[in-house]
Design goal:
The structure is a single chain. This protein has about 180 residues and is of the alpha/beta class. It has a domain of about 120 residues: STAS domain (Transcription Regulator spoIIAA), CATH 3.30.750.24. Helix content is about 45%, strand content about 20%. The protein has a 5-stranded mixed beta sheet. The longest helix has 18 residues. It is globular, with a radius of gyration of 17 Å.
């Protein structure tokens, strides 16, 4: 069985910090998305995703990052989604998909620079939501790949087959039962 890399989180004055330890993948990207959306709904204006211990990222994880970036308001202080601790491999993965135009990678003037150890020491595991069921996982993966396709035409072509397979898979899954209106 594939093990899910842990996600930890902390809120600080002016930003939320989300850290991925191990591989960023379709397994832990639903937690990343949930945390990001909760913080944005709470009014957060800057989210930092820490890749300092991230051994690599799959396309679903990167598409989830793109989705979070698209939901954050832009500001005159730079991009609202920042990446901390990206090694050369992770930086190249983000740049290859054009995601460096949606987020700042290790911005030198960020308010958190110089405080990495203190921030990381305060991070906690979010409440466990469990892995999504097959349908929710397919919907999440489809959304992530559609987000990548919206970044640029090259991504749309690159992930066209993946999105088609996921759309087909979702069309074959049983529909959700009708909701009781009362």
């Amino acid at each position: 069985m594939t093990q899910t890399a842990p996600i930890t989180v902390g809120t600080f004055d002016g930003f939320t910090w989300i850290r991925c330890e191990g591989k960023g993948s379709f397994l832990n990207s639903p937690a990343l998305k949930s945390i990001g959306e909760q913080r944005i709904a709470a009014g957060e204006r800057r989210i930092v995703v820490d890749l300092g211990s991230c051994s690599g990222m799959d396309s679903t994880f990167m598409g989830t990052l793109a989705g979070i970036a698209s939901k954050l308001p832009t500001s005159d202080q730079g991009m609202a989604l920042q990446i901390a601790g990206a090694d050369e491999r992770n930086r190249r993965s983000l740049e290859d998909l054009g995601l460096d135009f949606l987020m700042e990678i290790d911005p030198p003037a960020a308010e958190w620079q110089g405080r990495l150890d203190a921030i990381r020491a305060e991070l906690k595991a979010p409440p466990q939501a469990g892995l999504p069921d097959k349908t929710e996982r397919a919907k999440h993966m489809l959304d992530a790949h559609q987000q990548l396709g919206q970044v640029n035409d090259g991504n749309a072509r690159r992930f066209e087959e993946v999105t088609q397979v996921l759309e087909h898979q979702l069309s074959r899954l049983p529909a959700d039962p009708p909701q009781d209106p009362g």
